[in-house]
Amino acid sequence: xxxxxxxTGGLPRDAELRFTPQGAAVANFTLASSDNRFDQExxxxxxxxxxxxxxxxxxxxxxxxxxxxxxxxxxxxxxGDQVAVTGKLITRSWExxxxxxxxxxxxxxxxxxxLPTAPQQQPNQAQQQWxxxxxxxQTAASGAWSQPAQAGQDQPPF
Length: 158
Hints:
Blueprint: E1 5-10, E2 16-19, E3 25-39, E4 44-58, H1 70-74, E5 82-95, E6 101-115, H2 125-135
Parallel strand pairs: 4-6
Antiparallel strand pairs: 1-5, 2-3, 3-4, 5-6
């Protein structure tokens, strides 16, 4: 059975690199993902829920088929970077100093891929006109859109 999955999201803080006592490199970061919906009353996108998942990437020491130092490369990830990670979910259990048993679901990644981020764009003229019309309460059945176009005009009537 193949138990690999791929997740995408952004980093809410910089990745960290540490080393085990045996010298193996391991990178840790948090992957954040949010669901959004458009709120008509506020006329903007709002977050409905967010999920945060701790990700660990180990260097695969001694693997001739994959000599890439993934952990050391992942340590360069910065807050705001968008990434896709491939790996599997694992459960880590431990006991606190007070004797309480705890467990946590983490993502053990084998690979990561940086994703391009879209540049922040200013609304173009048509988008700005649409935003202004909706702020004034105009709909397709009212305002400029409710008037038939005059013959020979190829521009909207606003």
